[in-house]
Specification:
The complex is a heterotrimer. Chain B is α/β, with parallel strands linked by helices. Chain B has eleven helices and eleven strands. Chain B starts with 11 loop residues before the first strand and ends in a 10-residue tail after the last helix. In chain C, helix 7 runs parallel beside helix 10 (165-192). Chain C has 14 helices and no strands. Classes of the chains: A alpha/beta, B alpha/beta, C mainly alpha. At the A-B interface, helix 6, helix 7, helix 8 and helix 9 of A face helix 7, helix 8 and helix 9 of B. Chain A: It catalyses: glutathione(out) + ATP + H2O = glutathione(in) + ADP + phosphate + H(+).
Chain lengths: 265, 292, 306
């Protein structure tokens, strides 16, 4: 067991740039936060706010970053080790795009085990499929033979099969219908409890992160605008005008409110 | 073109519309016997993926790739089913317009926005280039684009998603249509931009007396925006209700869609999930709101 | 039979093998319902069978072994019941020579298949996957090879290496790999940034595992289609080299070389050049039709769905 007092993830003064010269885009601009172990941390913002970029950088998919990223107190090198991937796994936004179209579910789940040299493939696959409530009959099907919600369960199973401690969730439900979203969110909450996982959840939907997370970082144009604590009722004490505007916008269409919006185009 | 009757209070009348797709595994019934009437108002067709909502919109426009049959499909007194392909095109260009989900795919990437708009304007209204330009600028101003001249000379990839969707709406309004069908027009946009685009559509409907069919998956959003909601499930309209009376919805599917939103869930407890019933496929609501 | 069908088409296969067989069967069904593809398939299958049983089909062998007067009487005989495709200047049975020549055609096809596409495939996927300077280096080499006209380069190589079938095959292989490298690279670039590849990277997969296990299977189908379609061209190039005297040398019954021999007599003894020509035409057509059919079955853009 790791010491729960050491934060699972610490991000110190992280900056990520794309391009150079006149084309330079600051995707992430001096962002710092910590994620305590076994907590769920939300990153919320609109498109282009840099929330997904941070997640990809943590996973090692973006290598052009300045600043420091710590995993359980240890600084991460730009090339990630195999041990890192046993601890940290990621679930992508679009379950139609994140599963290899020519691999069966069985192959998709067996692949990480083969990479890390696990022997008890059969038991592990059966166990993880049960954890995500996928019936065994789907095991030898191809992704295109499953529905969106079932595919996302496969993607979650693939992330869990190495028994990681931390899951990076990149908009895990935004490509799904709301009724399926509810099922997946319930599953994620249940798994977190059972397996004592730490989540970093990226979403554009304030309602989803407020329901799922204990802490929320609001991002805009690559900057961290506000760090919010979510109370037991799922309420936050937002002060920043941008967060307040997001809050209002998620309440639905109100002509009078929209007039007050500050344009970001 | 044949005009039947003079019922101007019904801009669109659909009775028992069916859309079927033939396939090797037997035909797929995407839309089953749906009927509704609408005037110059904002109605929403709401449903999840595969409910047939988009196919309904396409069938009205005569753009459905499947087999469309209907007992009645009248637009402003015109029988749409009896139209020749040419007359249908005429109606589609001038009187019914459609806005698609993603502006990126609806605009030609190698042509400036202005050139595309002028071309569309000249085809639809048969006016001189000069008149077309002033009309286009006027429309871009109508969708509250602050610097229409600049937008005129940009390529589609140079504008943001919200701007792109405004341009699409401006293009659809060139010919002052009577009915606008918008298929998930704001789903690809950020939430604040989404509302701003809706506000523009709202104003246009009010000012021009247009009818609007908004096809969407987002029940709370359309409830706050539209006058009337048609809820579709598995190709049928399972419930039709006033937007303001959403909280009094009777059908278990409509209620389920509302309760499975995380906004309505209590933190720390599971969200209510939708338990689909086979009876929803064919059952109807009686006067007491009971499923029979 | 119906039981087997049910097993193959099961929606919920019980094992890896069943899933693989079921997928294969669905592909076969689609292929089977494409009449042109089936014609191509039958032609190529017939070619294979003819080559396999050539000694039994063509008992007269490639040369008659006749000399003197016997040769004089038996040479340049027109097609008849005894000699279906007639005889040539050495009194050899043209039909037998074509039948045995099918083996040479197949050897050319097989050798080219196992060299050029594989080389091109590996270079293309590696180049596309790594990008950066690896890509630049490999693609410039490819460009150098592409810059030469294919037939001229093959001619030069065949001439430099000496006449003979082996040098012809080598020349064809060396000139045809760049096209496969380009194809594989283009396919790899479309896959490179997908989420499923990112997901595999996040499991700690090595570069080679990503290329061989994730990228190659997706590029493979379009490569197979391309190779099959190119097969006709390869047979024609081989025949062309033979015709120009740089490929197989007489008396080897290579079809192109046979046409070259018959060229001098084309007006008086038409059958000498016509029948090998028809053989080349039929086989090339067969491979083309098969390639078109395979494209319909294997093309990843059709989503691999039924």
């Amino acid at each position: 067991m790791t010491d729960p007092k050491i934060p699972a993830i610490t991000i110190n003064d992280l900056s990520i740039h794309f391009g150079s010269g006149d084309e330079l885009v600051k995707a992430v601009d001096h962002v710092s936060f910590t994620v305590p172990a076994q907590q769920s941390f939300g990153l919320v913002g609109e498109s282009g706010s840099g929330k997904s970029t941070i997640l990809r950088a943590l996973a090692g998919l973006n290598t052009h970053c300045d600043g420091q990223m710590l995993l359980e107190g240890e600084s991460l090198q730009s090339a990630r080790s195999k041990a890192f991937y046993k601890k940290v796994q990621m679930v992508f936004q679009d379950p139609y795009a994140s599963l290899h179209p020519r691999h069966t579910i069985d192959k998709i789940l067996a692949e990480p085990l083969a990479i890390h040299g696990f022997k008890n493939t059969e038991q592990r696959i059966a166990k993880v499929m049960e954890q995500v409530a996928l019936p065994n009959k789907f095991r030898f099907r191809y992704p295109h033979q499953l529905s969106g919600g079932q595919r996302q369960r496969v993607a979650i199973a693939r992330a869990l099969i190495l028994e990681p401690k931390i899951l990076l969730l990149d908009e895990p439900t935004s490509a799904l219908d709301v009724s399926i979203q509810a099922e997946i969110l319930n599953l994620l909450n249940q798994l977190r409890e059972e397996l004592s996982l730490t989540y970093i959840l990226v979403s554009h939907d304030l309602a989803v992160v407020s329901y799922m997370c204990e802490q929320i970082a609001v991002m805009q144009h690559g900057k961290l605008v506000e760090l919010l604590q979510v109370d037991q009722q799922g309420k936050t004490d937002a002060k920043d005008p941008y967060t307040l505007q997001l809050n209002l916008a998620s309440k639905g269409y109100d002509r009078a409110v929209i007039e007050q919006f500050i344009d970001h185009d | 073109m044949t005009y039947i009757g003079n019922n101007n209070d019904h801009l669109l009348e659909v009775k028992n519309l069916n859309v079927e797709f033939p396939s090797v595994h037997g035909s797929v019934h995407a839309v089953r016997d749906i009927s509704f009437k609408m005037g110059h108002e904002k109605i929403a067709i709401v449903g999840e993926s595969g409910s047939g909502k988009s196919q309904t919109g396409r069938a009205i426009l005569g753009l459905s790739p499947g087999n469309v049959t209907a007992e009645k499909l009248f637009f402003d007194g015109v029988d749409l089913q009896g139209l020749s392909a040419r007359d249908y095109r005429e109606i589609r260009g001038k009187r019914i317009s459609m806005v698609m989900q993603d502006p990126k795919y609806s605009l030609n990437p190698v042509m400036t926005v202005g050139k595309q708009m002028i071309e569309a304007c000249q085809i639809q209204m048969k006016v001189s280039k000069k008149q077309a330009i002033s009309r286009c600028i006027e429309m871009l101003e109508a969708v509250r684009i602050r610097n229409p001249q600049r937008v005129f000379n940009t390529y589609p990839h140079e504008v943001s998603g919200g701007m792109g969707q405004r341009i699409m709406i401006a293009m659809m309004l060139l010919s002052s249509p009577d009915l606008l069908i918008a298929d998930e027009p704001t789903s690809a946009l950020d939430v604040t931009v989404q509302l701003q685009v809706l506000a523009i559509m709202d104003d246009l409907v009010k000012e021009r007396g247009m009818g609007l069919i908004l096809i969407s998956h987002d029940l709370p959003l359309v409830a706050s925006f539209c006058d009337r909601i048609l809820v579709m499930y598995a190709g049928r309209i399972v419930e039709e209700l006033e937007a303001s009376k959403l909280d009094q919805a009777q059908h278990p599917y409509t209620k389920g869609l509302l309760s499975c939103l995380p906004n309505n869930a209590i933190k720390g407890q599971p969200i209510a999930t939708l338990q689909r019933q086979d009876s929803w496929l064919d059952g109807t609501l009686n006067a007491q709101g009971k499923l029979i | 039979m119906t039981e087997l069908k049910g097993w193959l088409l099961a929606e919920n296969p019980d094992s890896r093998t069943q899933a693989a067989f079921g997928r294969g069967y669905l592909g076969w069904l689609r292929f089977y319902h494409n009449p042109l593809a089936m014609i191509g398939f039958v032609i190529v299958l017939t070619l294979l069978l003819i080559a396999l049983f050539a000694p039994y089909i063509a008992p007269e062998g490639i040369s008659s072994g006749l000399t003197g007067d016997a040769l004089k009487n038996a040479r340049f005989l027109p097609p008849s019941a005894e000699h279906w495709f007639g005889t040539d200047g050495q009194a050899n049975d043209v039909f037998s020579r074509i039948v045995i020549g099918s083996r040479i055609t197949l050897v050319i096809v097989a050798l080219v298949i196992f060299t050029a596409p594989i080389l091109g495939f590996i270079i293309g996927t590696v180049s596309g996957y790594f990008g950066g300077w690896v890509d630049i280096l490999l693609m410039r080499i490819t460009d150098v090879f592409l810059a030469f006209p294919k037939l001229v380069l093959a001619l030069a190589l065949a001439a430099a290496l000496g006449r003979g079938l082996e040098s012809a095959i080598f020349a064809i292989a060396i000139t045809s790999w760049p096209a496969y490298a380009r194809l594989a690279r283009a396919e790899t670039l479309t896959i490179r940034n997908t989420d499923y590849l990112a997901a595999a990277k996040l499991q700690g997969a090595s570069h080679w595992r990503l290329i061989s296990g994730h990228i190659m299977p997706l590029c493979l189908s379009s490569l197979i289609v391309r190779v099959t379609l190119d097969m006709a061209g390869i047979i024609l190039t081989a025949a062309g080299l033979g015709f120009l005297g740089l490929g197989a040398q007489p008396p080897t019954p290579e079809w192109g070389a046979m046409i070259a021999e018959g060229r001098d007599y084309i007006l008086s003894y038409w059958w000498l050049a016509t029948f090998p020509g028809l053989a080349i035409f039929t086989v090339a057509l067969g491979f083309n039709l098969l390639g078109d059919g395979l494209r319909d079955v294997l093309d990843p853009k059709s989503g691999g769905q039924h």
